[in-house]
Amino acid sequence: MSASEVRIYPDLVEASRAAAEAFVRIGEDSIAARGWFSVALSGGSTPNRMYADLALNEFSSRLDWRHAHFFWGDERSVPPDDPQSNFRMANDALLSHVQVPPENIHRIQAEKTPKEAASDYEHLLRGFEWGELTGFDLALLGLGTNGHTASLFPYSDALNERSRWCVDTWVEELKAARITLTPPFLNRSANVIFLVVGSEKASILSEILHGQYDPDRLPAQLIEPKNGRLIWLVDRDAARGLKEKE
Ligand code: 6PG
Predict the structure, then answer these.
(1) How many CA atoms lie within 13 A of 34 on its CB side?
(2) Nearest C-alpha to atom 13 of ligand 1 is from which residue?
(3) Which whole number is the average pLDDT over 160-180?
(4) Is the CB–ligand 1 distance for residue 74 below 6 Å?
(5) For the chain, what is the largest distance between any 2 Cα atoms, rounded to a whole number of angstroms?
(6) Which of 70, 128, 132, 158 is the most exposed place for a label (fewest CB within 10 A)?
(7) Where on the phi/psi map is residue 113: left (φ > 0), alpha (ψ -120 to 50), or beta?
(8) pLDDT digits over 230-245, tens only?
């Protein structure tokens, strides 16, 4: 594992606020340095509170949202108005409350077939002007209890993808197709932040950070930004296993 920083907070509320603060600081710095800020959002349930925090004036007033570009680390194979949609979750909690130009919201068009959606997103990513950076200023990620992140699930073909930046993948345990960015592209990010909360994540978090390196079984271990920072923002319950180790 590359050097990573673990910051522990009392609960979801504080961990979400810390994630919102980190988001805004990276955004401010990126816009000041290069005039724009690119971020890949994660899905699932954990980040919802953080996205809602970002829409609060204490955070939203600090960013010039006109210069922010939003991407997604993964998407379910559903239309954007589906309750399962990662885009819909972020749009409801954050994007519909801040002034991001619609053309800066680069959602995965998961209403298409998984192969088409992945191919189109790959084309979009490769056509984006990253400047001297080669990837996102910030990639937000979550962690599943089985060690997956984005939609990089254990033992899936997506884990071994070395050239494509976005692929479609079948998740047998969910009996569902997903579209996901791949480790090579996620690892181009200047900053990767995992937000992990809850006692149900304690065991897997300890395995990911302190266990054997076994990325086929623990895909989150594949996330090692080549030239970027890797930060874990976790709550006390999720960190319980870590304390026992340290
Ligand atoms: C998704 C996410 C996924 C998520 C983890 C954790 O599409 O579900 O991108 O990688 O981050 O499954 O989900 P929770 O936050 O709901 O535990």
Answers:
(1) 15
(2) 44
(3) 97
(4) yes
(5) 47
(6) 132
(7) beta
(8) 999 999 999 998 965 5
